[in-house]
Amino acid sequence: MNKYRDFENYIKEYPTRDGRFGPYGGAYLPPELVPAFEEIDEAYRTICHSAQFISELRRIRKEFQGRPTPVYHCARLSNLLGKTQIYLKREDLNHSGAHKLNHCMGEGLLAQFMGKKKLIAETGAGQHGVALATAAAYFGLECDIYMGEVDIAKQAPNVSRMKILGARVIPVSHGLKTLKEAVDAAFEGYLKEYKDAIYCIGSAVGPHPFPLMVRDFQYVVGEEARAQFKEMTGLLPDAITACVGGGSNSIGFFLPFIADPVEIYGVEPMGRGSGVGDNAATITFGKTGILHGFESLLLQDDKGEPLPVYSVASGLDYPAVGPEHAFLHDCGRIKYDCVTDEDAIEAFFLLSRYEGIIPAVESAHAVAYAIKVALENRHDSILANLSGRGDKDMDYVIEHYGYGDQYLEKYAK
Ligand SMILES: *Cc1c(COP(=O)(O)O)cnc(C)c1O
Fold first, then answer.
1. Using CA positions, which residue lies closest to atom 2 of ligand 1?
2. What is the pLDDT of residues 167-218, one digit of tens each?
3. Would you state the pLDDT for residue 233?
4. Is residue 10 situated within a structural domain?
5. Residue-wise pLDDT tens digits, 248-292
6. Closest-lying ligand 1 atom to the alpha carbon of residue 203
7. Is the CB of 360 under 6 A from ligand 1?
8. How far is the CA of 409 from the centre of ligand 1 (A)?
């Protein structure tokens, strides 16, 4: 049995017609919302084969987003650590600074093809809200972003960005006033307006067809990276890695390598440690359950209520994970491992000082894993997906960790 060749038809076979990845996925919706999601499913099914849709998306990626993003060899960092050669796929150079625009532009184009006038979403830290507001401005669509009042107070620069881009930021003032309440409010808003609006999810999560659509829109990341790496080195990388929050940058990066002899590592945030509420390592600690309309691994209590989650990277602190990751973990094709806040922050400073690239703290988790592989000399080469840039994190990092000299001392020769 060849463990890689077993996956040659994987992408055609999964998800099934009803949105299942093995036992995970599906669509668990209030009856009133079923027609709205069926409409999206049908539209996507038709449009994804349309030559016009495909060529328009290709043009947008090239002319507006600046794709393809490069693959970069971290020569100085690799040399510092040992023999393993570390490479990065530079999604931080995508317009608006992260991979999220890949699926937001796809969702915006779908909305335009469906004749919708408005994009609706929730946002936590504001990254998804900004990417979607960017897409809405590009397509000339209205944009309603639901955001908890606590998050609005914490994420002022992203709130300003969304407003400058013309989005309406709708404060959510019930419950804990954060992401979970914002999701509920966005669903309620969508229910009232679904004839004219489309709901746009922020990751490879949610009810079918979102995990499928988002992975398809992110697939370009791994597809480009695979060809670029081969052109640079004549080979495939021995291993690849990406951070896993909901799982969008990672699934798009991983799948083009699924049938290759390449080790794949998904990296979850271990935060402050393994205690309840100290991390967001859903695959590592989670159990099967249903949240926000889909079945997957979840961090939940005995009653099935989501547990509190934490990570220094707010883009990774979600108590569920995309259903496809839960499935590929069970299949044993992808290995999932964890990186702590401390290791991610160390990687943030190492990449900044040795390569002149300031990563998003989310992406720093993938870099930290590549560093770990290099220090253990486990593979000859590893390609990490640098999902976004770190400008948004600088104030927070400086306040809590200074300029990082304490992390660099142990590497100084
Ligand atoms: C949102 C975000 C993530 C996490 O989301 P995924 O859906 O797991 O990819 C990772 N990196 C950056 C830069 C982000 O903004």
1. 315
2. 999 999 998 888 888 988 999 999 999 999 999 999 999 999 999 999 999 9
3. 98
4. no
5. 999 999 999 999 999 999 999 999 999 999 999 999 999 999 999
6. 7
7. yes
8. 30
- How far apart, in whole angstroms, are the C-alpha atoms of residue 209 and residue 257? 23
Q: Are residues 92 and 105 in the same domain?
A: no
Mutation test residue for ligand 1: of 203, 297, 358, the one with most atoms within 8 Å of CB = 203
Looking at the structure, tell me whether residues 313 and 177 fall in a common domain: no
Give yes or no: residues 237 and 284 share one domain.
Answer: yes
| Amino acid identity for residue 366 in this structure | A
Last residue of a domain, one of 148, 176, 210: 210
User: Is the beta carbon of 103 within 6 A of some atom in ligand 1?
Assistant: no
Q: To test the ligand 1 pocket, which listed residue (99, 321, 392) has its Cβ within 8 A of the most ligand atoms?
A: 99
Task: Provide CB contacts within 8 A for 21, sequence distance 6+.
Answer: 14, 15, 211, 323, 324, 326, 327, 328
**Boundary of a domain, candidates 184, 210, 236:** 210
The answer to whether residues 155 and 126 touch, using CB atoms and an 8 Å cutoff, is yes
Q: Is 398 exposed, middle or buried (0-12, 13-18, 19+ CB in 10 A)?
A: exposed
Residues 191 and 232 both lie in one domain: no
All residues at 6 or more sequence positions from 1 whose CB lies less than 8 Å from its CB, including other chains:
none
The answer to whether residue 328 is domain-embedded is yes
Domain hosting 288: range is 66-97+218-411
Give the amino acid at 168: R
In the chain, count of helices (H) and strands (E)?
A: 17, 14
pLDDT of residue 155: 87
Neighbours of 260 (CB within 10 A): 15
Check residue 340 and give its pLDDT: 98
